[in-house]
Amino acid sequence: MIRGLLIHLTLIPLWVKGQSYDVQQSPPEILKPQGSNVSFNCQHQITDYNTILWYKQTAKVVGLDLIGYVYFSQTPNMENSYEKHLQLSGDGTKNSYLYFLKPIQLEDSAVYFCAASKAHQQPAYFGQGTKLTVLEEGLKVTAPTVKLLPPSKSEPCDKVQKKREEKSVTLVCLATNFYPDHVTVSWKVSGVIRTKGVGTDNNALRSEDKMYSITSRLRIGIKEWANPNTWVTCVVSFFNGTHNVDSEDSVKGQLVPGMVDPDSYVNSAQTAKFAYSIFIAKSCLFGLFIFFFVRKISRGSKDKWDAPHWILLIDINRCLGLRFMLCLKPSCASFRNVMFGSGTKLTVLDPNINVTKPDVKILPPSPKEICASENDQGNVTLVCVATNFYPDHVAVSWTLNDENATLRVGTDNNAHRINESAKYSISSRLRVLKSVWKNTTNMFTCSVQFFDGEDYITVTDTIYGQNKLSADRVRRNMNTARYAYLLFLVKSMLYAVVVGGLVWKIGRGNKKAVSE
To answer: Which CATH number does the domain 145-252 belong to among 2.40.50.1070, 2.102.10.10, 3.30.300.350, 2.60.40.10?
Structure first.
């Protein structure tokens, strides 16, 4: 038991570094109903490595829990908490099997890792892991619905980013309504896999209906996004128990206001100026022609035309901008200044779909986005997702510590719908400084106001700021502590040598004095 504990504590840091060396596990994923029999296999071809260890990792526990290990072909060593439920077999020099002594239950859902080791002081090399999900009764294996949300139209115009070359926009990929959570998310830009600037949730989130959802964010340069030939695709790979099924959605790059080549801008401005000059000249000539024509008619036909019924309004202002209006009555009106009301939105309800209020969830910033810069002056993105509502009578707003947040907020112009029989979804993004997000007293609230035909219903979700050390900072702190500890040991050894030599010298001097 003591040896197993030492191995467990020693190997975890090596696994975190992501080392792998010819250690293969099979199968990589398993979906089974309760009461099934399951086994895993682990193989390696590492010379002089004679031990295979097995670990279990659950979603609720941080770190790995040692199950047991096989040393050469000796009797396997099992931890007390697992010896009545799991069993190991095999030879530590090449392969090992882990199998259940009893039919699997829901609590057996976890990721199981094997590792090849030579001794607990030596590095251990891990396999890729086997993810086991014990299916719940009444839930059907369901592939995700994928929706790719383009950047907010206000995000490209964010003036906080000073240099145009450093500007970027955020695309959000939303996968919803799937079970179980065996998914991986990847991105493609114009058919090429993109990993830079990608931040995906560490784990899928589970809603009250027991279905899962996950989001992934891609930061892409504004120039690349402004190219209409750019296609961005989000691919969600889902394991249905037998094979992987890919679901994807794509959006096309869109022109961004202000992203114009300087030469093209100058040429366009000169062309527009020349065309406007021609338009002004033609307008002046046409106005003068009408003026003299009306004047001639009014003088030559006084009996037939009543002059007050002809009104020619000529407004010469704004340099040479000539505007005129010819009316048949003195009471003619101009509708140049028109004031509009707020409008009335009419939705004819589908009889097959019930009026349903939205489910609202705030997704925190991606850990990769938080770790993108070393200081706290960078920006992070919070995403509010409202799903499964009908009809699309919603309005989204943000508050920070109960105060309205309107700056750097980007909300979809319209709610999205997969098909005519589906419900709607909409997302909104809030950009804040990293220092604001890392303040754990800050409260971020997303409110979605929904009109159900009679009343307005407000659905909210709230999260608080989080301050977690990045993985790089944790490693740096660990390395610093390690170097400090080594330095302490070296100083202690030198001090012991000096004190020992001094005591020896004093003792030798005393012996000489006694002998004399």
So the answer is: 2.60.40.10
HSE of 69, CA atoms in CB hemisphere, 13 A: 26
Q: Lowest-pLDDT range, 142-156, 268-282, 422-436, 440-454?
A: 268-282
Question: Is 50 exceeded by the pLDDT of residue 306?
Answer: no
Long-range contacts of range 187-194, CB-CB < 8 Å, 24 or more positions apart?
187/216, 187/218, 187/232, 187/233, 187/234, 187/235, 188/231, 188/232, 188/233, 188/235, 189/220, 189/224, 189/230, 189/231, 189/232, 189/233, 190/229, 190/230, 190/231, 191/231, 191/233, 194/218, 194/220
Rounded to 5°, angle at Cα 314 from 311 and 315: 140
Instruction: For residues 25 and 41, give the distance between their C-alpha atoms in angstroms, rounded to a whole number.
Output: 6
2-135 — its CATH code?
2.60.40.10
Instruction: Delimit the domains of the chain by residue range.
Output: 2-135, 145-252, 262-327, 359-464
Apex 186 CA angle, 179 and 472, nearest 5: 105
CA-atom Rg of the chain in angstroms: 36
* CATH assignment of 359-464, among 3.40.47.10, 1.10.287.1040, 2.60.40.10, 2.50.20.10: 2.60.40.10
Q: 459 with 360: CB under 8 angstroms?
A: yes
Tell me the two tokens of residue 380: 């992070």
Q: Which pair of structure tokens corresponds to residue 1?
A: 């038991």
The rounded distance, in Å, linking the Cα atoms of 234 and 254 is: 17
| Contacts (Cβ under 8 Å, ≥6 apart) of 31 | 133, 135, 141, 180, 182, 239, 240, 241
Q: What is the 3-state secondary structure (H, E, C) of 251-297?
A: EECCCCCCCCCHHHHHHHHHHHHHHHHHHHHHHHHHHHHHHHHHHHH
pLDDT value, residue 292: 75
Spatial neighbors of 264 by CB under 8 A, at least 6 apart, are none
Q: Do 477 and 468 touch, CB atoms closer than 8 A? A: no
* Pairing between β-strand 95-100 and β-strand 39-44 as defined by DSSP bridges: antiparallel
* 259-157-434 Cα angle (round to 5): 130
Q: Name the amino acid, one letter, at 88.
A: L
DSSP letter at 367 equals H
pLDDT digits (tens, 9 = 90+) for 328-385: 444 444 445 568 888 899 999 988 899 999 999 999 988 777 776 556 678 889 999 9
* Token digits of residue 426: 């909409």
Q: 512-515: long-range contacts (C-beta < 8 A, 24 or more apart)?
A: none
Q: In terms of Cα–Cα distance, which of 172, 217, 151 is closest to 368? A: 217
